[in-house]
């Protein structure tokens, strides 16, 4: 199951992680976000222990979305060693996300 990110836990979950973290920037009103949500949850289960999967609601935690320049959603950003390593925007199939993650 993916982790719900907040302003309070973003640093500990994402920036201080010892493994890669996939952050799904999304919103409740976003159609493509709803389409990709089950894919994100499947990846979370499959990659448990290898990659941390987390979701950040851009309406609830807008300051972090702004900080990372998220202009469109869904945006998926992979953080490694506390820094952005790569990002992709828009709906992605499970296979494309796995390729994006390199797993």
Q: Care to describe what's here?
A:
The chain has one domain: Glutaredoxin (3-Layer(aba) Sandwich), CATH 3.40.30. It contains four helices and five strands. The chain has helices at 10-15, 31-46, 62-67, 94-101; strands at residues 3-4, 21-26, 52-57, 75-80, 83-89. It has a five-stranded mixed β-sheet with strand order 1-3-2-4-5. Helix 2 (31-46) links the parallel strand 2 (21-26) and strand 3 (52-57). The longest helix has 16 residues, at 31-46. It is globular, with a radius of gyration of 12 Å.
Percent of residues in β-strands = 25-35%
Strand order of the largest sheet: 1-3-2-4-5
> How many structural domains does the protein architecture include?
1
Low-confidence stretches: none
The strand count comes to: 5
Distance between the termini: 18 Å
Topology of this protein?
Blueprint: E1 3-4, H1 10-15, E2 21-26, H2 31-46, E3 52-57, H3 62-67, E4 75-80, E5 83-89, H4 94-101
Parallel strand pairs: 1-3, 2-3
Antiparallel strand pairs: 2-4, 4-5
List keywords for this structure.
103 residues; alpha/beta; Glutaredoxin; five-stranded mixed sheet; 5 strands; 35% helix; globular
Brief rundown of the structure:
This protein is α/β, with parallel strands linked by helices and 103 residues long. The chain contains four helices and five strands, in the order E-H-E-H-E-H-E-E-H.
């Amino acid at each position: 199951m993916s982790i719900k990110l907040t302003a309070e836990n973003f640093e500990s979950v994402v920036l201080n992680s010892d493994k890669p973290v996939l952050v799904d920037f999304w919103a409740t009103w976003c159609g493509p976000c709803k389409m990709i949500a089950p894919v994100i949850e499947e990846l979370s289960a499959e990659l448990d222990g290898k990659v941390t999967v987390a979701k950040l609601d851009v309406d609830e935690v807008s300051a972090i979305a702004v900080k990372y320049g998220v202009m469109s959603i869904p945006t998926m950003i992979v953080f490694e060693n506390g820094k952005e390593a790569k990002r992709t925007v828009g709906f992605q199939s499970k296979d494309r996300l796995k390729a994006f993650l390199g797993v």
